[in-house]
Each structure stands twice: as C-alpha cells, then as structure tokens.
C-alpha cells in the first residue's frame, strides 16, 4: 500500500500541532475518527497531569513561621478573595485600555485625525461590563458599519489601523472586548462559555442597529472571534440584521480537553501560543507579545474546551450556513486550519459567498506586512455586497410595482 503523505498543521486556536494527512479522505481512517482519537489521548494525558502529586515544601523546622495555612481560610473567604483579585485586575486592564491612543500619530494632520473615536462600556447578557470602542469618519458620512470581534487572548485596541482604513472609506466601526479580555470584566484569558460571547455579540449588534437605523451592518471576526461571528449569524434574528460577515483565519477545527468542567481554570502550559509565529512581520510579533492587554499565559483548560465545542458545532453545520460571507485565510497558518475555511466555502448554502487564500501568509492576516492590501480586499467585498443588496432591493421594488399594476388591470 502506498504510504500516505503527512503534513503538519495546527488544529484550531488551541495551537496543538497534530498530523493531518493530505490524502486523509482516501485513507482508511476518517478525519473525524482521527480527531476524536487525538482528543481522547490529550484528555487522558492532561487528566493524569492533574493526578500527579504536588511538590511538598521543606519541613517547617527549617523554615520561618508562615502565615495561617490555606486550610484555615473558609471557602467563602477564599472565593471572595479571588473575586476581589479578578475585579482589581479587570480595573487595571480597563485603565490601560482607556489609555491607548486609537489614531496613530502618523495619521494626524493639523491636529485633526482622520476619524473620531471613543470608548464606552456595554453590559452583556450576564451583566458583565464589556469594554467597547468606536471609530467614525470625521465627515459623518457612513455607508456601512463594521463590528469587530477580536480573537482569543487579544483585544479590540489592536485593530485601530484597520479601523482607520475602514473610516477612510466611509465605514463606521465598533469593537467589543470579550469577557476576560482587554478592558472587560473577568479573569484574564478565561472564558466560561463562548455561548456567552455569542449572546453578547448579538446584543451588541442590536444596540448598534438601534442607534444607527437604516445603516447596513457587517460582523467581522478573527480566529475564535470568527467562530463566534459565524455561530451568531446562524440565528435568524441576527442574520436578518446583517448585510454579511467577514472571517479571517476562523477557528473551525480545534482540539481541547474534555475534562475542563472538572478544573476549568487550570492552565495547560503546552497550549502557550507564544512560540508559534502568527505574523511574518517581526515588529507586529513584538508589539503583540509585549502588549499587557494581550494574554500570553498558558491557555486555560475551560477556554480550550469552549474553542473545541464551538468549532465542533460549526463543522457539523456548514451546510446550514446561509448568511453572505467572505472568508480569508493564510495557507501557512499554524494556529487555525485553512482547509476548514475551504470546507466552509464548499459546503455553505449561502448564495453570496467568497473565499481568498493567501499563499504563505500566517495567522494574523491584518498584522502581516501586506495588511493594507488584505484590508482593502475586505473593503472591496463589503462594497460589492452593498451594491448587490441595493440591486436586490431595486429588483424587489420593481417586482412589487409590477404585481400591483397587474392587480389594478385585473380589477
């Protein structure tokens, strides 16, 4: 039997590298069977890690007197202490988020920036305070609105250059930090449920639509944010508010442990993405990993489980996708799988859909050296979508007028 050629790719935002066969569909084992087997092995491995005995401290005879042991602290007191610590950390991150300059100095002329920007707080479905940003053209003319949903472990402030390019083409921009990210409430890097992020995205969209009646809206999502956007758009009432969605490097295929419900805040050090290149621009890498609002610690197990859960759900339901979409992916991405984006494009029932794969590009497309060209590809697609929507409305109006005229003649 001819040997099956193997190529190393990553599976989803969990960043664990797994072997995928180029000729997998023709091999004895299906891709789904391989994925489940790897998930099982990883879950067993991580569960065994939890069972390992903790390193004991030296005996008290050789140590100075220590404060009261953790056992002397009541569970309620410990819980209050942890909650207080998380709240203080969120406030610290919020102050940092407020202090970010959202218009680059090189883009400011005569003291007037190319766009006006602001920050605000939005209370999500769980009543958590979520940090939000907005950018609008200084001329006030807006032909559409783009709502940015960032990726796992990052924050909305990283997209200021993209926002400036959008506003220069008369698009308004909003962005929201997830729970546990950027300037929002929650333990840094911890997502109890991506369904909450999906619900917050829908509620945020409803708020923006109510404040901007009649203005077409697009949802943009990167990486795990792309998975959030795709799932949000699967709900008819959300899809009905959208002109389309844009997905860059969406996390549609991932591996993460199943036992996260047992130890949801446990950190799996093997999931640290810092060692995996996400951009070919060294300055972009340095900026990302020196940003205090970017979570660079080990992935929390529960968060990894949530990535697996939402990606598995989406992979099973590609055929039911009907929203207009544009998916963009780098062929050399080592964090999320470009083949999954191709599967989405091939299987989705959407009438208006497009895909663009960038040869040799990595995960963070909008932070690659060609970021301006990629952003322009997104802008061009949205403008084509707006033109198509206008034509559809004109055809619908003509059909209604013709129907009314025919009824009048019959009468």
From TrEMBL:
One Pfam family of this chain:
Hydrolase_4
Q: Where is this region: Disordered?
A: 58-85
The UniProt entry, under InterPro entries, shows: AB_hydrolase_fold, Hydrolase_4, MAG_DAG_Lipase
Give the domain of life: Eukaryota
The residue ranges of the Serine aminopeptidase S33 domain are 141-370
Q: Which Gene3D superfamilies match?
A: alpha/beta hydrolase
Compositional bias annotation for Low complexity: 58-77
Q: What is this protein called?
A: Serine aminopeptidase S33 domain-containing protein
Task: Identify the species of origin.
Answer: Escallonia rubra
């Amino acid at each position: 039997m001819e040997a099956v050629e193997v190529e190393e790719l990553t599976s989803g935002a969990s960043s664990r590298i797994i072997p995928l066969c180029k000729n997998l569909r023709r091999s004895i084992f299906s891709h789904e069977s391989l994925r489940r087997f790897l998930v099982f092995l990883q879950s067993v491995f991580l569960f065994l890690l939890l069972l390992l005995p903790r390193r004991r401290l030296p005996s008290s005879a050789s140590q100075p007197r220590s404060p009261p042991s953790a056992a002397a602290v009541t569970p309620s007191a410990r819980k209050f202490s942890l909650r207080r610590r998380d709240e203080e950390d969120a406030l610290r991150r919020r102050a940092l988020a407020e202090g970010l300059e959202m218009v680059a100095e090189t883009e400011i002329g005569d003291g007037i920036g190319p766009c006006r920007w602001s920050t605000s707080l939005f209370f999500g479905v769980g009543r958590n305070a979520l940090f939000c940003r907005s950018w609008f053209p200084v001329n006030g003319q807006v032909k559409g609105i783009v709502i940015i949903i960032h990726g796992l472990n990052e924050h909305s402030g990283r997209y200021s250059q993209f926002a400036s390019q959008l506003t220069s083409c008369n698009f308004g921009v909003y962005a929201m930090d997830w729970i546990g990210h950027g300037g929002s409430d929650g333990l840094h890097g911890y997502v109890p449920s991506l369904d909450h992020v999906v619900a917050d995205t829908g509620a945020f969209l409803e708020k923006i639509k109510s404040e901007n009646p009649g203005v077409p809206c697009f949802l943009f999502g990167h990486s795990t944010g792309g998975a959030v956007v795709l799932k949000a758009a699967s709900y008819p009432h959300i899809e009905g508010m959208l002109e389309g969605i844009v997905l860059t490097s969406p996390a549609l295929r991932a591996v993460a442990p199943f036992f996260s419900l047992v130890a949801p805040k446990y950190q799996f050090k093997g999931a640290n993405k810092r060692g995996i290149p996400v951009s070919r621009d060294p300055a972009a890498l340095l900026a990302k990993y020196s940003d205090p609002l970017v979570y660079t610690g080990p992935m929390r197990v529960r968060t990894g489980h949530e990535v697996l859960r939402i990606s598995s759900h989406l992979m099973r339901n590609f055929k039911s996708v009907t929203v207009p979409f544009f998916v963009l992916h780098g062929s050399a991405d080592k964090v999320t799988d470009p083949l999954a984006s191709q599967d989405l494009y091939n299987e989705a029932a959407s009438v208006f859909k497009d895909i663009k794969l960038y040869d040799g590009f990595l995960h963070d497309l909008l932070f690659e050296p060609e970021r301006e060209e990629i952003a322009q590809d997104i802008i061009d697609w949205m403008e084509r979508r707006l033109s198509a929507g206008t034509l559809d409305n004109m055809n619908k109006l003509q059909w209604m007028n013709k129907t009314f005229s025919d009824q009048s003649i019959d009468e």
